[in-house]
């Protein structure tokens, strides 16, 4: 395969700025422990869509070659594996390495393996996901973990699992730096919110093109602008919490914290962003937040339908304040629902109109 730019060329240019990359590959492996739900979710993105990125519709982005098994136009097999094998040999760069699914511990697999991606051409033995990560991650211009399984382990890493699963940063190290000088970029979600991932990927691509700085990440390597606020801060049910008005069942439009919602402590923007085309999002459609974007998911948030431990205290403390505020607002609401008294059709003006200044009358001389 033809190389576009070497990593060394892309690393530096006069003035200390990275060289612009005009063509780049995205090697997307979803053979981690997962359901491929993140790939499926991303197909619903519209701001931007994966099609617009790949087809070069968005100005300023490098030309993108996407290699993803669900979205690939190839017939599969060795044809699909070719760019991955070339990258592992150091013959394809630059590329962004996207990992979907949690990373199993192959050191405890006994005589078998937990998950694989293709076979060794010489021995015919399966090549594990870990084998690919060991060879591709160090050569990648950027490494992106998509979905909670890849970022923090997710469902497959919960207590009692036999695979020893973990997130990509647990496997590579939280201080890992890609060949392009970037840390791992974590975009959690179970599955990932479509626009959250595509927006992040687009930022990384603009950075590769030399027209944007590196994406700002928090201490858990999440994009700050997406995960800097809590579900509660963007929830359209949040005002009910402030007024201590809580739902007792899942048919209520009120705050769901007493029936299992973890929104007040979960970093996620789904209530504000929606799920598809701005519509949906768990609390928006009657679902509780089960904290699927968080590093401690799922273990720290189960049983999902039980009230979170801190909710009983916080809801008790807010109850007297909320009851008073709700009553005062009710009184003001009654007043606000009345029209002013001067809205009438009588033959007098009662609006209080009383101009303090009137223009002086001027006389004109006759000629």
TrEMBL record:
Any one Gene Ontology molecular-function term assigned to this protein's record: electron transfer activity
Main location: other
Region (Disordered): 345-367
Binding site for [4Fe-4S] cluster 2: 232, 235, 255, 261
GO terms for cellular component: [Ni-Fe] hydrogenase complex; cell envelope; ferredoxin hydrogenase complex; membrane
Biased composition (Basic residues): 358-367
A Pfam family it matches: Oxidored_q6
Any single biological process term in GO: anaerobic respiration
Positions that bind [4Fe-4S] cluster 1: 35, 149, 190
Gene3D superfamilies attached to this UniProt entry: Cytochrome-c3 hydrogenase, C-terminal domain, NADH:ubiquinone oxidoreductase-like, 20kDa subunit
Location of the protein in the cell: Cell envelope
Assembly behavior: Heterodimer of a large and a small subunit.
Protein name in UniProt: Hydrogenase small subunit
Protein species of origin: Thermostaphylospora chromogena
């Amino acid at each position: 395969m033809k190389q576009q730019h070497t990593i060394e060329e892309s690393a530096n240019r006069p003035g200390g700025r990275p060289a612009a990359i005009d063509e780049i590959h995205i090697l997307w492996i979803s053979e981690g422990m997962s359901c491929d739900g993140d790939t499926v979710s991303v197909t619903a993105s519209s701001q931007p869509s994966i099609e617009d990125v790949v087809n070069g519709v968005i100005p300023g982005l490098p030309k993108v070659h996407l290699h993803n098994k669900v979205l690939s136009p190839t017939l599969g097999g060795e044809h699909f594996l070719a760019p991955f094998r070339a990258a592992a040999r150091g013959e394809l760069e630059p590329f962004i390495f996207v990992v979907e699914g949690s990373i199993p511990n192959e050191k405890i697999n006994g005589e078998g393996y937990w998950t694989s991606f293709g076979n060794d051409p010489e021995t015919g033995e399966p090549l594990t996901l870990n084998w690919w990560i060991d060879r591709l991650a160090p050569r990648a211009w950027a490494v992106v973990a998509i979905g909670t399984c890849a970022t923090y382990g997710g469902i497959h890493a919960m207590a009692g699992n036999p695979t020893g699963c973990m997130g990509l940063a647990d496997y590579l190290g939280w201080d890992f730096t890609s060949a392009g000088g970037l840390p791992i970029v974590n975009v959690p979600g179970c599955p990932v919110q479509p626009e959250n991932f595509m927006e992040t990927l687009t930022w990384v691509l603009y950075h590769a093109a030399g027209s944007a700085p590196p994406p700002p990440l928090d201490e858990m390597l999440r994009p700050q602008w997406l995960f800097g606020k809590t579900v509660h801060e963007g929830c359209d049910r949040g005002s009910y919490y402030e007024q201590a008005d809580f739902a007792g069942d899942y048919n209520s439009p009120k705050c769901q914290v007493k029936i299992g919602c973890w929104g007040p402590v979960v970093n996620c923007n789904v209530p504000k962003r929606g799920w598809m085309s701005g519509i949906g999002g768990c609390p928006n459609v009657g679902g509780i937040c089960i904290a699927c974007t968080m590093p401690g998911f799922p273990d720290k948030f189960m049983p999902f339908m039980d009230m979170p431990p801190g909710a009983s205290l916080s809801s008790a403390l807010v109850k007297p304040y909320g009851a008073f505020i709700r009553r005062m607002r009710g009184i003001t609401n009654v007043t606000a629902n009345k029209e002013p008294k001067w809205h009438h059709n009588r033959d007098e003006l009662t609006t209080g109109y009383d101009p303090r200044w009137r223009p002086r009358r001027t006389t004109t001389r006759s000629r």
